[in-house]
Amino acid sequence: MNDWAPIAKEYDPLKAGSIDGTDEEPHDRAIWRAMLARYVPNKGVTGDPHLTLFVARLNLQTTEEKLKEVFSRYGDIRKIRLVRDLVTGFSKGYAFIEYKEERALLKAHRDANRLVIDQHEIFVDFELERTLKGWIPRRLGGGFGGKKESGQLRFGGRDRPFRKPINLPNMKNEFYGEGSAEKRNWSREGTRDWRTRDRDHERSRDKRWPERDRSWAWGESERERDSKEERSRGRERKDRDR
Asked: Per its UniProt record, what PROSITE patterns does this chain match (predicted)?
């Protein structure tokens, strides 16, 4: 556990299917498929993988020209590859953008994530197929993405980092705000961590207690009012009998 990190440094399908990266048994069939897969990165892909960005969740109508217009703001682009269906020629919703300089790559990685292009909020990350050891694509059961409805959640990436294990000893971790200010800001881009959720839970619980107190007080006053009405009716009957 000393080498635990919220972002995967090496791809393991079993860990990628875990909330905190500590699972020891697969919990769905996709993980089994990824563990049994023997994937070899596409040798036909050219370019420097360390200068390439992965851009996903694109509008299917977004073109290479639009991507060039947006991402050229961060630096000189060497190549844009919008992945299309071999049969129909339609976009599959993701692309790879290779820059000429590392400075432009890092700037686009930092600023372009969650940018809205053609009414779609995009996702930007470094290319992993050729840079992350053991990488298995989503079509073979791997990847870092997944659908909540199917129960096939994937963690360990930029979009869904691992959650910090409860029994993890105190250790310096830049992702959770113990590093530079820039990295602390980056950690707030994704989902809220466990500290935020616990704090929100406490606040909501504190808000509920006064409502309960008011309801109990309201019920008590109702009972007192009913008893007073009963006593007043009893006095009226006694007066009429006299």
From this structure: RRM
The CATH number of the structural domain formed by 47-132 is 3.30.70.330
DSSP per residue, 6-64: SS-SS--HHHHTSSSS---S--SHHHHHHHH------TT--S-GGGEEEEES--TT--H
Q: What is the mean pLDDT of residues 167-191?
A: 48
Whether the model clears a pTM of 0.90, i.e. scores above it, the answer is: no
Cα-to-chain-centroid distance, residue 53? 19
Range with the poorest average pLDDT among 77-86, 125-134, 143-152, 184-193: 184-193
Tens-place pLDDT, residues 131-169: 999 999 988 999 998 777 777 788 999 999 999 888 766
**HSE-up of residue 139 (Cα within 13 Å, Cβ side):** 2
Residue owning tokens 């007066």: 239
Cα separation, 24 vs 32, in Å, equals 12
The SS3 call for residue 219 is helix
Domains of the chain by residue range: 1-39+134-163, 47-132
Cα torsion through 23, 25, 30, 31, rounded to 10? 60
- The one-letter code for the residue type at 175 is F
